[in-house]
Structures are given as C-alpha cells and as structure tokens.
Design brief:
The strands form five sheets. This protein has a seven-stranded mixed β-sheet, sandwiched between helices. A three-stranded antiparallel β-sheet has the order 9-8-14, with no helix packed on it. The longest helix has about 30 residues, at about 245-275. The chain is built from eleven helices and 16 strands. It has two domains: about 30-255, Aspartate Aminotransferase, domain 2 (3-Layer(aba) Sandwich), CATH 3.40.640; about 260-380, Aspartate Aminotransferase, domain 1. About 45% of the residues are buried. By secondary structure, the chain is of the alpha/beta class. The chain starts with about 20 loop residues before the first helix and ends with a helix. Bound molecules: pyridoxal-5'-phosphate (PLP). The site of pyridoxal-5'-phosphate has 15 residues, from helix 4 and helix 5.
Amino acid sequence: MLPFRYNRNFSDFRVMQVPFFPLETILRPIRVELDQAISGVLDEGQFIMGEQVALFEMEFAKFVGAKYCVAVGSGLDALTISLKALGIGEGDEVLVPSHTCQATWLSVLRAGARPVGVSVNGFLIDHQHLEQSISGRTKAIMPVHLYGYPCEMDAVCSVASRYHLFVVEDFAQAHGATYKGRMAGSMGDAGGTSFYPTKNLGALGDGGAITTNSERVAAFARSYRNYGSVQKDVHLQVGVNSRLDTLQAAVLRVNLKHVAHRNKQRREIADVYFSRLSTTGDLVLPPRPMSPCEPVFHQFVIQTEWRNQLHDYLSKAGIGTAIHYPVPVYLQPAYAQLGYGRGSFASAEALGKTVLSLPVWPGMSLDQVQCVCDEVLRFFGTK
Ligand SMILES: Cc1ncc(COP(=O)(O)O)c(C=O)c1O
C-alpha cells in the first residue's frame, strides 16, 4: 500500500524550494575571495604547475596529516596513479566495496589490475568479508569512506598487514572525516581524493590529489602526472598528463580555509535530520556519528522501500534529492567482463533500490532543513 500522502495535490499550497546542491548559492559568501584568487592567477600568468599548486599541495598535506600531497587532474587519476605508484598492475587484484561510485572500480581497471568486489555492511566495505575475497593475486584493499563516513580502518589495516596488502583509501567523499582522530587520507599507504565541485572540498572544475607518507609513492606520482618527467626534458618513465590547473589550486586554497566550518554546518543539518526523522515510516537513517568515527556528511543518505515514490513526491514539493547509486558498478554493461551478475552482492543491490540522498549543503537554512523533514513526515503520513 502506498504511504498516506503520496497522491497529494501540490497545486493548492506553496512549498519552499530546497535545491539538492545549489553551487552558486553555496559559493556566494566567499565569492569575493574566489574572484581575488582567480584574478591573482591571471595576474601571475602561470597556468600550469604554478606556485599555487605547490602551496595547495603543502596546505592539503598538512590538513590531511600526510607527509606528501601530489595534486592531479581528477579523483579517478589520483586513485589510478596511487595504485600504479605501489606497483599494482597486470595480473593483480584489488578489493573494492560493491557499493561505491564507478571511479573506485574503474581506477583499478585503469591501473591494469582486476577489481574484486566485497560486500558492504551498512554502506561501507565489510571488513569481515575481506579475508574470504583474498586470493594469491590480491595486492591491495581500497576502502571507500562513502558519503563522508570513515571505514573501520583498524580492521581493514589489520587484514592488510596480515596478508601483506597495500591499503589505498578512496577519500573523495570524506575531506575532514576522522577515524580515531586520524583524517581520511592519512591512514593507508596512499589515499586518492577528488575535488569535483560538489565534494566537501571542491574546485570549480575537475581536480584530485594523492596523499601519502611514502617519498617513493609521492615521487612516482609527481613524475607520472607530468609525462613521466623528473625535470625538464628528462623522462624516466612513460606518464600521463594529469596536472591540477593553477586556477583550480588557487580556488582550492580558498575553499580549504572554509572546509572545517562547512563540515560543521553539514553536521548541524544532519543532527536535525537525525532528531526529526528517526521513527518515520520504514526509513532507515545513516548511523549516528559515534566515537571513534567523525563523519562529514558528504551526503545524508536515507533508505526506504518507497524510495522512488518519495523521490517523486519531494521533487513535486520543490525538494531536490539524488540517488547514489542506483545500479552497482559491477552490473553496468561496461563491467560485464568481470563476470559478476545479479545476486553477486545482495547488500549492494538492496542499497541500489532503497537509497535516497537528502539535501545537505553549507548555508542551507534551518527552515529549509525543517521543510525537508516536514515533507518527508507528510509523505509517510506522520505529520
Ligand atoms: C567515492 C569516489 N571516488 C572517486 C571519485 C572520482 O573523482 P573524479 O570525478 O574527480 O574523477 C568520486 C567522484 O565522483 C567519488 O565520489
């Protein structure tokens, strides 16, 4: 049976518009700072590998608590280059969560290795299923701190060290998230992140970075991203062109100053969702933040059997939502070569049918958060 209010007529009352992620509105408070940073780069006239890139790398390494940061052209490249820097390639396997963004799996393929899916618990890689997925070819585990939630890194790292595997963190959705006081991106052999504009730390275009404590990994990445060059006209390896634009570095330096405050705003919004939506219909809320994990709510993802109907209902009410991710990567036609099929990971497939991301963005007003809660409650007939 459909929830009570599904067929409500929206034409007879006014509802507030709550966009899912209005970038222009979010950036408005720092627009002057951004304009200054951009015009500074225009004045300097150095658009590739300028000083801004080096400064951002230093500042981001410090923020993450890693010795080195190498800025690259995207999150996908950051993960691919991290794997390559660790010597992972042809014939190797890398364990990845079955529920994640496509780039996690694709980075392994692009490194020449094979992604091996692992069940998820909640929506993070299930460390209790890691051992059974390890084969003689396994070289690394790639935990993804999805939606801003840090994975159980002690458990992941302990399996990795028992089997002599590398750990490459995918922390594209977790800038500033901590596990036992350690930042996402600082706990593995390398970490790869994205600065896609909607990330907690976003650029105004594509960008990514590798963080690591290994001088060797950093040196490989620094050269590989720039045609394998170690110095002008000296190429010791075949590389790629994956440099972070100077303009994006300058923008990221501005955004980095605001990320902690913005993460705090995201947490405050999540608090309201937790307190108002906890006993609504069949809703499953994300885990409440609990020591030792401090998530940063890149997304606030609820689950309901009525996902599609709730999505339509909220859209008619002027509230934007999104689905991360409706189809597991291994069920996409492009990945058929890997040999997975329907039923391979029941937990990931169930998430694909039930997850819905509610709006959560810095600057979202309390009224807007309450409006989302009101409409979700109305949908289930509990308001
Ligand atoms: C978890 C995760 N990993 C990797 C990526 C890839 O980042 P990019 O889009 O910058 O290549 C993203 C971004 O969409 C992501 O969310």
